């Protein structure tokens, strides 16, 4: 266990009396949620009718299709157009749980609504429907996650795909939470793969080394546990000090679904660790 990460286990956890735990968790930064740049749309300057007068035989110019009929851009959708639209469409079509979407590279009003729903669920800010880098990367990770890999059987088990940085809970052979995003240990603090049991939990746990509260804490191994993230989970190039960081709603739901003795299975390896 890590010597620098000592915390006191809640009294009565396993009826073994007071016991010291080592926590390897805490924030790696305090950066506010970055904003995905909103594409600036421009329209041609209005032509003065005084400058150009149509001839009596001129015919009206056909207009673009109405919103929701495809064609891309602001004319067919209230969402800004992102550079990763086709990637996002393809991934969300494969996931299939956030609404109808067609992988055609054309941003319709329906696509916009589906992308927004996904962004809100995954805590992506701003959730404006723009198919940017963050949305594409997260969608691809979720789409690539295969719950069968966890091999949970009928048990209630928390599953952490370290490779794709995703989290889900299985029960009775079905996914009951997720797959959703997570953030695990960064380089030098890699989260350990394996199967462990939850042996300490608290809705508000204090991390001594990092001086921060860890909401919905569920410890499973060597100072590592599940808990709500204390920073924007989509900041790239960083990670936890070994813990499995979760969005608020996912941490709350995981706390309600799991308990003492519940299994946590971690598989794969985070790239770069």
From TrEMBL:
Swiss-Prot/TrEMBL GO biological process terms: cell wall organization; peptidoglycan-protein cross-linking; regulation of cell shape
- Which residue ranges does the record assign to the L,D-TPase catalytic domain? 156-267
Q: Where is the signal peptide?
A: none
Pathway annotation from the record = Cell wall biogenesis; peptidoglycan biosynthesis
MF terms from GO for this chain are: peptidoglycan L,D-transpeptidase activity; transferase activity
Extent of Low complexity compositional bias: 39-67
Q: Where is this region: Disordered?
A: 32-80
Q: Which GO terms describe its cellular component?
A: extracellular region
What is this protein identified as?
Lipoprotein-anchoring transpeptidase ErfK/SrfK
Q: Which organism is it from?
A: Allocatelliglobosispora scoriae
């Amino acid at each position: 266990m890590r010597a620098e990460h000592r915390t006191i286990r809640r009294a009565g956890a396993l009826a073994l009396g007071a016991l010291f735990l080592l926590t390897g968790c805490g924030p790696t930064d305090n950066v506010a949620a970055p904003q995905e740049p909103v594409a600036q749309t421009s329209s041609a300057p209005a032509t003065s009718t005084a400058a150009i007068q149509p001839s009596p035989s001129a015919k009206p110019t056909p207009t673009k299709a109405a919103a929701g009929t495809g064609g891309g851009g602001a004319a067919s959708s209230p969402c800004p157009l992102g550079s990763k639209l086709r990637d996002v469409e393809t991934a969300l079509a494969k996931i299939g749980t956030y609404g109808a979407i067609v992988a055609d590279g054309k941003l319709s009003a329906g696509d916009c609504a589906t992308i927004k729903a996904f962004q809100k669920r995954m805590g992506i800010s701003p959730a404006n429907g723009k198919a940017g880098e963050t949305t594409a990367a997260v969608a691809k990770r979720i789409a690539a996650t295969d719950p069968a890999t966890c091999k949970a059987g009928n048990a209630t088990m928390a599953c952490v795909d370290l490779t794709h940085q995703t989290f889900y809970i299985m029960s009775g052979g079905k996914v009951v939470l997720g797959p959703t995003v997570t953030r695990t240990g960064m380089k030098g603090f890699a989260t350990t793969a394996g199967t462990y049991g939850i042996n300490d939990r608290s809705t508000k746990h204090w991390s001594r080394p990092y001086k921060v509260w860890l909401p919905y804490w569920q410890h499973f191994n060597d100072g590592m546990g599940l808990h709500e993230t204390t920073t924007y989970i989509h900041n790239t190039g960083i990670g936890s000090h070994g813990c499995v960081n979760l969005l608020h709603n996912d941490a709350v739901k995981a706390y309600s679904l799991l308990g003492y003795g519940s299994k946590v299975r971690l598989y794969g390896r985070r790239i770069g660790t």
